[in-house]
Amino acid sequence: MQILTLAALLALPQAPPTQPAPSAPVPVSAPISAPEASLSFYSESFPFAWDRMIPLTVNLDGLKVTRIFFNKRVVEPGFFNLLKGAEFGTRAQVEVTNTGKYPKIPGFAVAVLDKDGKLLGAASGGTKVGTIKPGETETFDLNFTQVKERLAKGDRFLLTIELRN
């Protein structure tokens, strides 16, 4: 039996390291860009108020936003007495008028922030079927779901509008 020393082992010729067989290159697709839609866009921050009408003077291509209102939906007294005082969600109501010459299809998003800029809740909504015809006024209910319990402590809100033609 032959014993090899470390020096003898280091002196032995070494086989080249084995490399994996080259594989076919994995195709990398280019980022998919969304098709450009013809959208008018508006976004701005405003002071927040809970359960009070907030007047606005926003005009996006003939869609005039006149006010927004944040509150909980509650059944009014005298209306279905069995449900009196029941809550049915938290909302932002946005009132708009189409002052343009053509029908409008708006989409809305609102986000409520506290005084430190932390997000307290977000809601979105808009036209589901049809359009807002010239001269029409419509109110949209944007629903807050899941994250909504601290909304009344808001300090500012962001309003974003996308307008499709």
Architecture overview:
The chain is mostly beta strands. It has a single domain, classed as Apoptosis, Tumor Necrosis Factor Receptor Associated Protein 2, Chain A, CATH 2.60.210.10. Helix content is 4%, strand content 45%. It is built from one helix and eight strands. The protein has an eight-stranded antiparallel beta sheet, with no helix packed on it. The longest helix has 6 residues. It starts with 5 loop residues before the first helix and ends with a strand. The model has no long low-confidence stretch (mean pLDDT 82).
List the helices and strands and how they pair.
Layout: H1 6-11, E1 39-47, E2 54-60, E3 63-74, E4 87-98, E5 105-113, E6 119-126, E7 137-144, E8 156-164
Antiparallel strand pairs: 1-8, 2-3, 3-4, 4-7, 5-6, 5-8, 6-7
Organism: Geothrix oryzae
Protein name: DUF4352 domain-containing protein
Query: Beta-strand level of the residues, as a percent range?
Result: 35-45%
CATH class membership: Mainly Beta
Radius of gyration: 30 Å
* Number of strand segments: 8
- Per CATH, the superfamily is Apoptosis, Tumor Necrosis Factor Receptor Associated Protein 2, Chain A
- Which H/E pattern describes the elements? HEEEEEEEE
**Name of the CATH architecture:** Sandwich
- Order of strands, widest sheet: 1-8-5-6-7-4-3-2
The count of domains is: 1
Structural class by helix and strand composition:
mainly beta
Q: Note the gap between the termini.
A: 91 Å
Organism: Geothrix oryzae
Protein name: DUF4352 domain-containing protein
